[in-house]
Write a structure and sequence with these properties.
The chain has six helices and nine strands, in the order ββααβββαβαββαβα. It has 223 residues and is α/β, with parallel strands linked by helices. Strand 6, helix 4 and strand 7 form a beta-alpha-beta unit. The model has no long low-confidence stretch (mean pLDDT 94). The strands form two sheets. Strands 1-3-2-6-7-8-9 form a seven-stranded mixed β-sheet, sandwiched between helices. A two-stranded antiparallel sheet has the order 4-5. The radius of gyration is 16 Å and the shape is globular. The two termini are 32 Å apart.
């Protein structure tokens, strides 16, 4: 299995929590890891890790993707069964590599999934939730920023539903429409997650200082 690379910022020799920053489509770990400096608080006792998604974009070599949102050059909102199968295969491949990446860091820090926060933006938020479905274990928290839920199935037999969930979206997001925020909240509620949700007025597809403050408060609640 291919090993994910990435960036990290280590604030503690013996951290109590690990925070994984999952970037969006076309971004990379170098661009995303600075969030660690903005989110860190000494009370967290956390170290931050930003893996690069496995696939490189052909038209932009610095950009990465967890899965191709345009299988056979069709946007995933309009794909057929063949394209859905391609996307599912790519998601599973990325998730397995991400699971290995997280497992290795848990092992080296003598920590477990319950000591890990997942923070994903856009496509990274989608893959964070998919990872939770795949692993079926509780995390310290799952934070979805400007994302959506790809798999709406019931998770009644999964320990993942014991993970505190934070969902944040801008009401002016023209990349991942606000309707996906509503949909994600409904799916999470139907699965009986403990949810905090914020639809932020006037914000687009971005991570603002207001969003960062909400995220930091959420993490501090569960460290």
């Amino acid at each position: 299995m291919k090993k994910l690379d990435g960036r990290s910022i280590v604030f503690n020799k013996k951290p109590k929590k690990l925070i994984f920053l999952l970037h969006g489509y076309g971004d990379n770990a170098d661009n995303f890891i600075p969030l660690a400096e903005l989110l860190n608080d000494n009370t967290m006792k956390a170290n931050f890790f930003a893996p690069n998604a496995p696939s490189i974009l052909s038209h932009y070599p610095l950009g990465r993707q967890w899965f191709n949102p345009y299988p056979n050059e069709i946007h995933y909102d309009g794909v057929g069964e063949k394209e859905k199968a391609i996307m599912q295969q790519e998601c599973e491949s990325s998730i397995k590599q991400l699971e290995k990446y997280i497992n290795d860091l848990c092992l080296s820090n003598d920590l477990s999934y319950e000591d890990c926060f997942l923070i994903g933006f856009s496509q990274g938020a989608m893959i964070a939730y998919e990872l939770g479905i795949f692993i079926k274990q509780a995390f310290a928290g799952c934070i979805m920023l400007s994302g959506r839920i790809l798999s709406p199935q019931r998770l009644s037999k999964s320990f993942f539903i014991k993970t505190p969930l934070l969902i944040i979206h801008g009401d002016n997001d023209d990349i991942v429409k606000p309707k996906h925020f509503t949909e994600a909240c409904q799916i999470a509620k139907s699965n009986e997650f403990v949810i905090e949700k914020y639809l932020i007025e006037g914000e687009g597809h971005t991570i603002s200082s207001k969003t960062l403050q909400i995220v930091q408060n959420f993490i501090k609640k569960y460290v």
